[in-house]
Amino acid sequence: MKKSIFAIWAIIVIFIGLVITQNQDFFLSDQSLRLNLWVLGEYATPILPNAVIFLVTFIAGLVITYLFCLPERFKSKRTIKKLTAKLEAYKDDGPDIAKEAKELQGSAIEKTDSKTKSKDISDDSPADETVEEKPASLLDNPDSETSDKQI
Is the full-model pTM beyond 0.70? Predict the structure, then answer.
């Protein structure tokens, strides 16, 4: 990848060099730029070769582009700092969260085991007969029961 980028830039530089060397008469001829603002009067630059005018214009374009991209770079740096801080916080909390998840998994397993044991013991009790079974659709979506009551 680095070699291909280098090759592309080499081709671009060679092309620019060819354009300049084949058009030396144009680039070395002297010109003066004028600007008439009607309020301040007319301004004229000193007589300069066209190559200098092209160079100044190119550098001005680079500076303007840099200035327009500067706020985005500051935002990106700020975002990187915030995300790095969050990542460090998550790395610090990682072992605690893993322990908590294991504890919750263990307690959920214990609860399901205790429920199955209590059902086995209370199979003969009359309280089981009064329990109302929910339809299978409610088991899939428990929120649908609450939405039916609200309507």
Answer: no
